[in-house]
Amino acid sequence: MVSRSGVLVAVVLGLTLTGVTGAGATPSSPGGRPAFPAGFSLPQGFLPEGIAIGDAPTAYFGSRADGSLYRVNLRTGEGEVFSKGPGTPSVGLKIDRRDRVFVSGGAAGDGRVVDARTGRILKSYAFTAPTGTFVNDVVVTDRAAWFTDSLKAVLYQIPFGGHGELPAAAKTIPLTGDFVLTPGVNNLNGITTTPDGKALLAVQSNTGKLFRVDGATGATSEVGLGGEVLVNGDGLLREGDTLYVVQNRLNTVEKFTLDRTGTRAALVTKVTDPRFDVPTTVASFGNRLYLPNARFTTPPAPDTTYDVVAIPKP
Questions:
Q1: Angle of CA points 110, 293, 83, to nearest 5°
Q2: From CA 20, how far away is CA 74, in angstroms rounded?
Q3: Sign of the CA dihedral running 278, 283, 286, 287
Q4: What's 76's DSSP letter?
Q5: Beta strand pairing call for 39-42 and 306-312
Q6: What's the first-to-final CA gap in the chain, in angstroms?
Q7: Exposure of 86 by Cβ count < 10 A (0-12 exposed, 13-18 middle, 19+ buried)?
Q8: Which of 29, 147, 26 has its CA nearest to residue 77?
Q9: Computed over its alpha carbons, how large is the radius of gyration of the chain?
């Protein structure tokens, strides 16, 4: 969600962790400060998928089980449920500079905006009827939030007011151009912005194609990947002209260099890690990437364990 030739194995950080994924004391960095854990556990039965990290060393995760949101201190790996879910899934997440977490609602066909400090729901949006839909991921800019629907050829937009105010209702933007929906399977999934900020990028999981999308009109054009195919493409993370693409069931992260307009992408490297167990998406803090293991190939139960893996940025 691609050929595994040339896959580079990421260096596993040799850390011993306290209360997270390991035993013993958290070691110190060369400067004498405690090092961040190289991984940490999430609650049993949590069924994670999305992750969001803002400017502070705090990560946010959503539960596919009941939609609860879990907040983790990246310095310690310790966390807590800070927003009880509505009983429907929480899938892709993003946090904006106003400390608002935008949550994709999966098969419920909705999205909501949550205060990252208090857990209070600021606004909920019913994008579509809860049948034949899967609101999968979200990207947030200063102007709006855009959500993908893996089962429909649309984006959902929450346009902001001049000072970031949330609107009363969301907009549905039909997609046109190169993108072709395949009925009955997951199509558009992860979403981010182009380096110039003038358009969006979204990956189609079933075909492995990447599309540039005009967020205002819905016009799409296929991005040139130099022959790469992003089958099982899931979460996207863009930093400058670098694009990271998570291929969940392949346990792989691909790193690309984008041109400024997001019309072409060149593969830099592919990374895997023995700790990956179907990671779905990625966020970063400092020189690390953080990936939640969704464990799609493991039957979920109330006592199923889940964790998050940190790797050095390739």
A1: 45
A2: 11
A3: positive
A4: T
A5: antiparallel
A6: 20
A7: middle
A8: 26
A9: 18
E-assigned strand segments in 127-167: 135-140, 144-149, 154-159
* Burial class of 57 by CB neighbour count within 10 A (0 to 12, 13 to 18, 19+): middle
Contact 46, 37 (CB under 8 A): no
In one-letter notation, the amino acid at residue 178 is D
Tokens encoding 126 = 């019913």
**Torsion sign, CA atoms 33, 38, 44, 47:** positive
Structure-token pair, residue 190 = 């992860």
Q: How far is CA 116 from CA 72, 78, 83, 122, in A?
A: 12, 16, 9, 10
pLDDT digit of tens for each residue in the chain (314 aa)? Answer: 333 333 333 322 222 222 344 323 333 454 556 689 999 999 999 999 999 999 999 999 999 999 999 999 999 999 999 999 999 999 999 999 999 999 999 999 999 999 999 999 999 999 999 999 999 999 999 999 999 999 999 999 999 999 999 999 999 999 999 999 999 999 999 999 999 999 999 999 999 999 999 999 999 999 999 999 999 999 999 999 999 999 999 999 999 999 999 999 999 999 999 999 999 999 999 999 999 999 999 999 999 999 999 999 99
Residue 263 structure tokens? 């019309």
Please list, residue by residue across 212-226, b when 16 or more beta carbons sit within 10 angstroms of its beta carbon and e when fewer do: bbbbeebbbeebebe
